Amino acid sequence: MSDTERERIRERKKRELLEKHGVAPDSTAADSSAQTDSPTQFDSPVEIQSREQLDRLVSEQQLVLVDCYADWCGPCQMMEPTIQTVASESPAVVAKVDVDTHQSLAGQLGVQGVPTLVLFADGQAVERLVGAQNRATLDGLIQQYA
């Protein structure tokens, strides 16, 4: 992925966040900098706390990659840098579900092993991957639906 493409994705995500929070994209630089000083949900993974939060995110965003993980899971820990990079550089919003904390939600997502990654496109679960995945696999999957 080229630097130009990464920058385009970052700008799109920033614009979406500003619009979501009712800030006009043409706001003054002072207003925009106040918004961007804190991390945005689009630049890093979103920690999911409820089914309602996940449903809202999936309905509002074109692509959502849900990472179902456990803190004790070695492959999950190994994938963490890749998940962080995908969150900041891909057109997908990345959401994380701790399967130990949110067992009911994990069950609703059909998680039987961790890590499990579920890709939602236009509100529908379209792909499911179980086990550690490399960056190229995730990028290819996301590009298929972008």
Task: Compile the SSE list and pairings.
Blueprint: H1 3-20, H2 29-36, E1 46-47, H3 51-60, E2 63-69, H4 74-89, E3 93-98, H5 103-108, E4 116-121, E5 124-130, H6 135-145
Parallel strand pairs: 1-3, 2-3
Antiparallel strand pairs: 2-4, 4-5
| CATH class call of the largest domain | Alpha Beta
Strand content is 15-25%
What's the architecture of the largest domain in CATH terms?
Answer: 3-Layer(aba) Sandwich
Q: In terms of structural class, how would the helical and strand content be classed?
A: alpha/beta
User: What's the helix count?
Assistant: 6
CATH topology description of the largest domain: Glutaredoxin
Q: Element order, helices and strands?
A: HHEHEHEHEEH
Radius of gyration: 15 Å
Largest sheet: 5 strands, mixed
Low-pLDDT runs of 5+ residues are 24-40
Shape assignment: globular
Fourth-level CATH superfamily of the largest domain: Glutaredoxin
Biggest sheet strand line-up: 1-3-2-4-5
Task: Give a verbal description of the structure.
The protein is α/β, with parallel strands linked by helices and about 150 residues long. The protein has helices at about 5-20, 30-35, 50-60, 75-90, 105-110, 135-145; strands spanning about 45, 65-70, 95-100, 115-120, 125-130. It folds into 2 domains: about 1-40, no CATH class; about 45-145, Glutaredoxin, CATH 3.40.30. The chain has a 5-stranded mixed β-sheet with strand order 1-3-2-4-5, sandwiched between helices. The longest helix has 18 residues, at about 5-20.
